[in-house]
């Protein structure tokens, strides 16, 4: 951003140049000098701010879907929110997570490559405890998962990926599939250590237990669809075309909807004393002449004009005119 000098600052600068306190040639040299900014090649910037915003928006939806899913499965209070979306080297991510954790390695066709959903042991074991009939508390000591516990965890997280699929529908129709589950980060090498990843951190609370769920997506996986992660793409994308069968079903339901139809002969205003004095044979004068058509309302809107009559000894109304869109009433 360019700094704008005030009038007082301009006067002070001119005074300093006039008095010799500042040298104009020195100022010119400073402007021509190249400004150097350090760049760490180990932390290459691959995702723009626009991409980060899009990933945040996608996974905020993912957090909401995941909250609903886990709340139903665990039958307890669950709260999941996006805390941060950042880019960093894969090696830094591996060093930042616990030595004993739950790593769900998965693929999501048509994207090529593997991704990781890392679940903090506190959260993973609280889920396991809740599924096995406990209160949902985390153990004091973290141990390796047994075969039965591994199968239970695989089942619950395999279905959790349906929430990820739903969240990504606005960008790409993906099919996440759990490939493997690991507990030791050192045995998991999905990309090279210096590869840039997008790390989506979700704060998770299950009952009284809190922890983090981290989604690691390598840049190489998202590279083919980076253009779809721009905000411009979101707003210019074509609207989804409805399935013809869905449209037909919608039309059928609309056609069955019931609407009240009222044919008004006219209106009249009388006082309460006149109303109380009415008797058999009295005539109430309406505000419309006999030759004027009847206003036929659908709901509370005038849609037709018609004439009164009979059909098979029953009172009927014949539609003579369709009221054009936007017309509410007709003049007398």
From TrEMBL:
UniProt xrefs under Gene3D superfamilies: CheC-like (3.40.1550.10), SpoA-like (2.30.330.10)
Compartments it resides in: Bacterial flagellum basal body; Cell membrane
Membrane topology value: Peripheral membrane protein
Superkingdom to which the source organism belongs: Bacteria
GO molecular function: cytoskeletal motor activity
Domain Flagellar motor switch protein FliN-like C-terminal: 253-323
Keywords, ordered alphabetically: Bacterial flagellum, Cell membrane, Cell projection, Chemotaxis, Cilium, Flagellar rotation, Flagellum, Membrane
Entry GO CC: bacterial-type flagellum basal body; plasma membrane
SUPFAM superfamilies: CheC-like (SSF103039), Surface presentation of antigens (SPOA) (SSF101801)
GO biological process: bacterial-type flagellum-dependent swarming motility; positive chemotaxis
Family matches, as PANTHER family: FLAGELLAR MOTOR SWITCH PROTEIN FLIM, YOP PROTEINS TRANSLOCATION PROTEIN Q
Family under the similarity heading: Belongs to the FliM family.
Protein name: Flagellar motor switch protein FliM
Biological source species: Paenibacillus algicola
